[in-house]
Sequence to fold (286 residues):
Amino acid sequence: MKKLILFISLCVFAILEVNAQAAWIEPGPTTDVRAMCRIYVDLSKVTNTSLAGLTGPFYIWTWNPRELPANDVNVNGTGSQPWKNSNDNLKLTADPTKGPKVYYYEMIPTDFYGVSQGDVYSKGISFLVKPKDGGGYGAPDLKTEDLNIKVLAPIERDTIYTLPKCAYTDEIVTVMYNNPIERNVAMRNLDANDCYLYAKLTLSDTTFVEKASFFDVGTNPSLKMTKITEGLFTGQFKLTMIPREFFAIPAGKTIVSAQFIVRRQNYNGGIDRSVGNNDPKYFECK
Fold:
């Protein structure tokens, strides 16, 4: 049943759920991780109470999308007992405008962790908060529970696009068709039963895979897109899948890029297909 939950719903409602969370990222819920952003934590909403009564300063201790090595300027802790000596570079800043126990750390995630944007979007940002001396070594640990922020890539609403933007071979992805802005005016206002998706995927070994050839798409019910009739995406069409399962992609291979074309069920020539933004969409973001 979990596989039936649409990623699109997460994108629409994620911003509504932020206030209930102990940790979040701003700007959000979609974030350009190559730009400056803030990692926020509300210590009044964490479940581990070992920091109760402490007034700070507090420090971030982070390991995802990459734990930094001992020689890095932003390593979590220093010395022979790093848990007892958090790096001063990782000190959190209070933000009383958001609450009496709200703190943030400012970073450019790709620069801070030394990873690709795809690593941040696929792994998220994992961390905990502690005082400079976190105890340990026989004494009780002073820390929050482990916190993870799922980071969503900014959506590019071309005529055809994916949610999330950085889609992955083994994860849920929704292919979106923004029918109201289709440049082929003859394709606009499609009937709910007349929108089919052609996809040609380039795999990591340079081979290609299709669910059906372009001319056979209209005879394959699994390629029929669903029209959205309410909410933020009204008038658009969607098709949700786990690509490896949907296209029967062999183990060990991943999708590099995908060419998407939308067409009517009955195809009688160029007037019956999309013409806007058909450039390849890159899956495994680098």
